[in-house]
Structures are given as C-alpha cells and as structure tokens.
Write a structure and sequence with these properties.
The chain crosses the membrane at residues 102-125, 132-156, 176-195, 233-259, 279-305. This is ABC transporter permease. By secondary structure, the chain is an all-alpha fold. The chain contains 14 helices and no strands. It has a domain at 92-268: MetI-like fold (Orthogonal Bundle). Helix 1 (2-28) runs antiparallel to helix 13 and helix 7 packs across helix 8 (172-203).
Length: 315
C-alpha cells in the first residue's frame, strides 16, 4: 500500500510539473507581445517597456525563465496582478473560500440526492419509480448549471422572493442563505451523474446470492440496501463522487458568474478578459493541483474500502 501511495504521489508530482510547463509555454506563445499584455492600459514608452522586460526577465532564455517562475511558484509566489497590483496568492486565497464553500454544499446536494435515488432506482429496476428517477437524472444531466441557476433566480428571487440571488453575503448565516441557490444549481447536475453511476453499480449487486438470502431471512429493504448493498457498491460510488468533484470545477465558474459570487470561477473569467497573465497562470496551476488531489484522495479511499486493492498493492 505504501509503495502504491508513493507511486501515486510521484505521478501526481510529474503531472503537475508537466501542467506547469504547458501553462507557461502556452502563455509565452500567445499572440502579441508579452510586454504589451503586461503593460495593460498603461501608456507604452521605451523606458517602461525596458523596465517590464527587466522585471519579468524577458531577455533571458525560455527555459531559464520557466525554471525561475517554477521556483517562485513552488513557494506560492506568482507575482502581482497586472490589473490590481495585488499579490496573486492573496487574490486567489481570498476568492477560494467562497468557491470551497460552494463546492462543499454542491457536493452535499449531489451525494444526498444521488446515492439514495440511485439505490432506489436499482431496487425498483424496470418499474415506474425507476423510469421516473432515470428520466429525472437524464434531465438533470442535460440542463447546464447556468440555465438551472437562471431558472432558480426567477423562481426564488423574482416570482417568489424568499432567497438572496446576488453576492455571497456577510457572516456565516447570511453566507449560507446566499449559497443555497448556487449550490442547488450546481448540485442538481452532479446528483444526476451520481444517480446514473450508483444505479449501474447497484444493479450488478442486488441480484447476488447473499442479498437473495438476506431477503429470504425477512430483512427489511432499507437494511438490505444500507447494510449489504451500499457496502458492496461503495467503491464505484466513491469513484463517481470523485468525478463529481472534478466536474464541479468548470460548472462552478458559470454558476459564480450567474449569481455574482466573488469566487475563483469569477476571478478566472475576469482575469482572462483582462489578460491578467500572472493570475491566469496561478489559477491554471491550482486547478491542476485540485484535480490531482481529488484523484489521489479517491485512490486512497478505494484502498481503505476494498481490502483486495490493498492486497494487490502489497504484492
């Protein structure tokens, strides 16, 4: 198990190194001069352009510039924003709190709705309840989060104004109220994905002999599903929940824009529009790190859930 863990961490490190090189390379190869982009709206003069070239080491060879940038990034130093002159690390960390809270709530919505509904659909396979749940899941997967968010804004912000639809609020209680609709808009599509994955995994388990024997013993449906079925479909469920966390990343960008949330997603949109290169580079690296951490966490949870994987890793 330790060998597998070390292997996964090594692969994650190599992946992050590759992503960092690609991000730096693509920015360097973007159309136009880096000096013009880094100047932003400031008037260009030969002296200012020369200062920019010296500040960002643009006269150095490409590989040397990349290694210098990588060394700074390893210390979480991504420079300063072109637009606000604020430290990039401070700007990202300030926005990350809202995005993290949104992701946790959306994940809770997806897990709370998706896992029980998927198990119920598998238990009633072929019946009307199964068809209704499957149809609902298809509709949920087909509806973009920003469209669901717009509908929720109309229903609960305009038609029946019971929940706030703008901003992140102040204080824990107000923040929770402001995040209910965004988390619901993001979580509905993610829950639909969990329903499909859970139903497919449970269908292969519910016909096993040990569940038939449990039903013959007179055990209740709820106990069979929670004690026997859920334990044996936990591995694919964990994998689907990890996939949900990864899929939530691009969806959160649009949801934050729709609800005017000051999160990482809206920061990405603003930075790309303003050609704020240091911020875009930092967000790309943090996005890759997020995906790597989620995948590594799913692997570790899989090792803890299924002893057979630990035995295979030990050999």
């Amino acid at each position: 198990m330790l060998r597998r863990l070390l292997g996964r961490l090594g692969a994650a490190g190599l992946l992050l190194l590759l992503v960092s090189f690609l991000v730096f390379s693509l920015v360097s190869m973007a159309p136009g001069s880096l000096e013009t982009t880094l100047l932003g709206a400031r008037p260009a003069s030969p002296e200012l352009i020369q200062n920019i070239r010296v500040q960002y080491h643009l006269d150095d060879p490409f590989l040397l510039r990349y290694l210098r940038w990588l060394a700074d990034a390893a210390h979480l130093d991504f420079g300063r924003s072109i637009v606000t002159s604020e430290s990039v690390s401070d700007a990202v960390s300030a926005r990350a709190v809202v995005s993290a809270e949104l992701a946790v709530l959306a994940f809770g919505v997806a897990a709370t709705l998706g896992v029980p509904a998927g198990l119920a659909a598998a238990a009633w396979a072929g019946r009307a309840a199964d068809r209704l749940i499957t149809l609902s899941a298809i509709l949920g997967m087909s509806a973009p989060p920003f469209a669901v968010g717009t509908l929720l804004i109309y229903l609960f912000g305009v038609r029946f104004p019971v929940l706030p639809v703008y901003g992140a609020g102040d204080g824990p209680g107000d923040r929770l109220l402001h995040l209910i609709l965004p988390a619901t808009a993001l979580g509905i599509g993610l829950a639909a994905l969990v329903v499909r994955q859970t139903r497919a995994a449970a269908l292969g388990v519910l016909d096993q002999d040990y569940l038939t024997f449990a039903r013959a013993r007179g055990l209740s449906r709820a106990r069979i599903q929670t004690t026997y079925a859920l334990r044996n479909v936990a591995l694919p469920i964990v994998s689907s929940l990890g996939l949900v966390l990864i899929v939530a990343l691009p969806g959160a960008i649009l949801v934050e824009v729709v609800f005017s949330l000051p999160g990482v997603g809206s920061l990405m949109v603003e930075s790309v529009g303003a050609k704020d290169i240091p911020v875009v580079q930092a967000l790309a690296i943090f996005s890759a790190l997020y995906v790597v951490v989620v995948n590594t966490g799913v692997d570790l949870c899989s090792l803890l859930i299924d002893p057979r994987l630990r035995d295979g890793a030990a050999r």
